[in-house]
């Protein structure tokens, strides 16, 4: 009986069929990245708001004041009395009598006496010039409630984390395409509910669920793509990242054209319903079918792939070799039971955590240093495009491990240099920081590919999902780490990023090299993968030369 890789080579490793599936599933990257970074525009700070004095609303309506007139009557005297008070988070502790004339009831106080009036914190009487432009104005996430905005992003990343465990496990047990389609449905439904949430609690609950299902769509689409192509074509795992970047590039344009946060939320959520049409054009992963002892179905799909690729499978193929490894429900213990699997798992978990923490930290740092939000966001996304092309031209020539390590080391050096460059030469500081962003993007994209190549088919989706869950943990920590440390010293987060990236660059040198090697089918295959640092497997057959490495 032929092996799966032998049948795949005869059917076509990256023919018309795989290219179609790759293009269709890659669209998931656009919607997922938009969800991933949407908080930048959903939660943008309102341009102008102030705290309304009790009774002022009724008087304003009765007297026909404009918002500008009401603001002048309430906030201006407060500011004149104490220039350090802007009127956004504090108000004068007075109540307006709505039965009197339409003149400001603060006019009888002079500037000096107004400054002596007692102050009270504002709780729920904020007035916004654009009340539905973001969730900040929708749910009053200002002043003492500003931390809730960070919470909303942490909740999304928590959803990613839970989705990695639950849906990663489900995809290995019930099938890739089934979980992909259910996840697309979940993202669409939860996205609509988020857009029309009556309060912030409902918003958080369904944002968490949208994050959970969103992670399911991204991880399963990535695994399907890497499992239906030959080892020489697994570079598609890097190319698919370009679509992730495309989503980041498109997002500021969507936010610029759509004035409300509800409109932005719907624009990034509704396309997920279109992915349900893939039920008729994207098959189940034949590799996964083999691990579930469904060889006949796998062979049927392979014959269909060969037909679409203009090739023909030998009629003598009545069955494909099924892994002799016992199929069981995957668990974390399966990932650390043997020495090489344990080493791979721990290093990959750290690499995911570091890449995500630094990547999100550098993105959010744009909000601290100021500038045009739409333009800066677009430029920072455009910086990521060369990353995929640099990987494509190097990874099949010099392997996975060296670019993986080098990108982390360069990111570490760039962050360290940026921290100590003087503010007087902003162009140099921006250039070096951009180099750091490019380098950590390369590391982020390589870890996707390496992760899928270092686990056997029976554990691949679960292994990728579990290791990448540390990415979500990094995403949860990133906003709190960035803003708390920046409050001490603006560049302190860059020092932490530099240390984390340097350690990661050294650790990934201990991983096996997977250039030109067939995807492992069993844990035993993983244990035999070759490496040049540390004690790894001694023999592994190169898929093209059939010689042992």
From TrEMBL:
<dbReference type="InterPro" id="IPR004749">
    <property type="entry name" value="Orgcat_transp/SVOP"/>
</dbReference>
<feature type="transmembrane region" description="Helical">
    <location>
        <begin position="151"/>
        <end position="170"/>
    </location>
</feature>
<feature type="transmembrane region" description="Helical">
    <location>
        <begin position="264"/>
        <end position="282"/>
    </location>
</feature>
<keyword id="KW-0539">Nucleus</keyword>
<keyword id="KW-0813">Transport</keyword>
<keyword id="KW-0496">Mitochondrion</keyword>
<dbReference type="InterPro" id="IPR020846">
    <property type="entry name" value="MFS_dom"/>
</dbReference>
<keyword id="KW-0812">Transmembrane</keyword>
<dbReference type="GO" id="GO:0016324">
    <property type="term" value="C:apical plasma membrane"/>
</dbReference>
<keyword id="KW-0406">Ion transport</keyword>
<dbReference type="InterPro" id="IPR005829">
    <property type="entry name" value="Sugar_transporter_CS"/>
</dbReference>
<feature type="domain" description="Major facilitator superfamily (MFS) profile">
    <location>
        <begin position="99"/>
        <end position="516"/>
    </location>
</feature>
<dbReference type="GO" id="GO:0015872">
    <property type="term" value="P:dopamine transport"/>
</dbReference>
<dbReference type="GO" id="GO:0015874">
    <property type="term" value="P:norepinephrine transport"/>
</dbReference>
<feature type="transmembrane region" description="Helical">
    <location>
        <begin position="488"/>
        <end position="511"/>
    </location>
</feature>
<protein>
    <recommendedName>
        <fullName>Solute carrier family 22 member 3</fullName>
    </recommendedName>
</protein>
<feature type="transmembrane region" description="Helical">
    <location>
        <begin position="21"/>
        <end position="42"/>
    </location>
</feature>
<feature type="transmembrane region" description="Helical">
    <location>
        <begin position="177"/>
        <end position="196"/>
    </location>
</feature>
<dbReference type="GO" id="GO:0006837">
    <property type="term" value="P:serotonin transport"/>
</dbReference>
<feature type="transmembrane region" description="Helical">
    <location>
        <begin position="347"/>
        <end position="368"/>
    </location>
</feature>
<dbReference type="Pfam" id="PF00083">
    <property type="entry name" value="Sugar_tr"/>
</dbReference>
<dbReference type="GO" id="GO:0015651">
    <property type="term" value="F:quaternary ammonium group transmembrane transporter activity"/>
</dbReference>
<dbReference type="GO" id="GO:0031966">
    <property type="term" value="C:mitochondrial membrane"/>
</dbReference>
<keyword id="KW-0325">Glycoprotein</keyword>
<keyword id="KW-1003">Cell membrane</keyword>
<dbReference type="InterPro" id="IPR036259">
    <property type="entry name" value="MFS_trans_sf"/>
</dbReference>
<dbReference type="GO" id="GO:0006811">
    <property type="term" value="P:monoatomic ion transport"/>
</dbReference>
<keyword id="KW-1133">Transmembrane helix</keyword>
<dbReference type="InterPro" id="IPR005828">
    <property type="entry name" value="MFS_sugar_transport-like"/>
</dbReference>
<dbReference type="GO" id="GO:0051608">
    <property type="term" value="P:histamine transport"/>
</dbReference>
<feature type="transmembrane region" description="Helical">
    <location>
        <begin position="236"/>
        <end position="258"/>
    </location>
</feature>
<feature type="transmembrane region" description="Helical">
    <location>
        <begin position="202"/>
        <end position="224"/>
    </location>
</feature>
<feature type="transmembrane region" description="Helical">
    <location>
        <begin position="374"/>
        <end position="395"/>
    </location>
</feature>
<dbReference type="GO" id="GO:0008504">
    <property type="term" value="F:monoamine transmembrane transporter activity"/>
</dbReference>
<feature type="transmembrane region" description="Helical">
    <location>
        <begin position="462"/>
        <end position="482"/>
    </location>
</feature>
<dbReference type="GO" id="GO:0016323">
    <property type="term" value="C:basolateral plasma membrane"/>
</dbReference>
<dbReference type="GO" id="GO:0005640">
    <property type="term" value="C:nuclear outer membrane"/>
</dbReference>
<comment type="similarity">
    <text>Belongs to the major facilitator (TC 2.A.1) superfamily. Organic cation transporter (TC 2.A.1.19) family.</text>
</comment>
<feature type="transmembrane region" description="Helical">
    <location>
        <begin position="427"/>
        <end position="450"/>
    </location>
</feature>
<keyword id="KW-0472">Membrane</keyword>
<feature type="transmembrane region" description="Helical">
    <location>
        <begin position="402"/>
        <end position="421"/>
    </location>
</feature>
<dbReference type="GO" id="GO:0005326">
    <property type="term" value="F:neurotransmitter transmembrane transporter activity"/>
</dbReference>
């Amino acid at each position: 009986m032929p092996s799966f890789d032998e049948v795949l080579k005869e059917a076509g490793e990256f023919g018309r069929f795989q290219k179609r599936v790759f293009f269709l599933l890659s669209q998931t990257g656009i919607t997922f990245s938009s969800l991933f970074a949407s908080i930048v525009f959903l939660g943008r700070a309102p341009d102008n708001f102030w705290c309304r004095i009790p009774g002022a609303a009724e008087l304003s309506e009765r007297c026909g004041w404009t918002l500008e007139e009401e603001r002048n009557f309430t906030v201006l005297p407060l500011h004149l009395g104490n220039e350090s008070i802007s009127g956004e988070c504090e108000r004068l502790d007075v109540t307006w009598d709505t039965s009197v004339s339409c003149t400001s009831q603060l006019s009888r106080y002079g500037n000096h006496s107004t400054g002596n009036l007692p102050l009270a914190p504002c709780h729920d009487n904020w007035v916004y010039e654009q009340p539905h432009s973001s969730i900040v104005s929708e749910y009053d996430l200002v002043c003492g409630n500003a931390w809730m905005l960070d919470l909303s992003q942490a909740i999304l990343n928590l959803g990613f984390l839970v989705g990695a465990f639950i849906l990663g496990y489900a995809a290995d047990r019930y099938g890739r395409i089934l979980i992909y389609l259910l996840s697309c449905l979940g993202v669409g439904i939860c996205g609509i509910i988020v857009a029309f949430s009556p309060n912030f609690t409902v918003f958080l609950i369904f944002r968490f669920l949208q994050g959970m299902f969103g992670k399911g769509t991204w991880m399963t689409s990535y695994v399907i793509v890497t499992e239906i192509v030959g080892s020489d074509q697994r570079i598609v795992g890097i190319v698919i990242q370009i679509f992730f970047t495309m989503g980041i590039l498109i997002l500021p344009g969507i936010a610029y054209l759509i004035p409300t946060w509800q409109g932005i939320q719907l624009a990034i959520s509704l396309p997920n319903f279109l992915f349900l049409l893939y039920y008729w054009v994207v098959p189940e992963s034949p590799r996964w079918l083999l691990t579930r002892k469904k060889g006949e179905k796998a062979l049927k799909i392979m014959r269909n792939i060969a037909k679409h690729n203009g090739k023909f499978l030998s009629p003598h193929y009545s069955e494909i070799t099924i892994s002799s490894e016992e199929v069981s429900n995957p668990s974390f213990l399966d990932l650390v039971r043997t020495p090489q699997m344990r080493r791979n798992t721990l290093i990959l978990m750290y690499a995911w955590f570091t890449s995500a923490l630094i990547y999100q930290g550098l993105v959010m740092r744009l909000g601290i240093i100021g500038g045009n939000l739409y333009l800066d966001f677009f430029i920072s996304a455009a910086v990521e495009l060369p990353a995929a092309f640099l990987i494509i031209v190097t990874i099949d020539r010099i392997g996975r491990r060296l670019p993986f390590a080098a990108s982390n080391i360069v990111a570490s050096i760039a962050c360290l240099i940026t921290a100590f460059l003087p503010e007087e030469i902003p162009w140099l500081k921006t250039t070096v920081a951009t180099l750091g962003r490019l380098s950590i993007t390369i590391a982020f994209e390589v870890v996707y590919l390496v992760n899928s190549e270092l686990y056997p088919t029976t554990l691949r989706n679960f292994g990728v999902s579990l290791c990448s869950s540390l990415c979500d943990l990094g995403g949860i920590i990133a906003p709190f780490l960035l803003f708390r440390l920046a409050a001490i010293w603006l560049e302190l987060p860059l020092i932490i990023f530099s240390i984390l990236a340097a350690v990661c660059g050294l650790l990934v040198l201990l991983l096996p090299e997977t250039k030109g090697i067939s995807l492992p089918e069993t844990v035993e295959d993983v244990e035999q993968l070759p490496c040049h640092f540390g004690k790894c497997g001694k023999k592994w057959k190169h898929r093209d030369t059939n010689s042992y490495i």
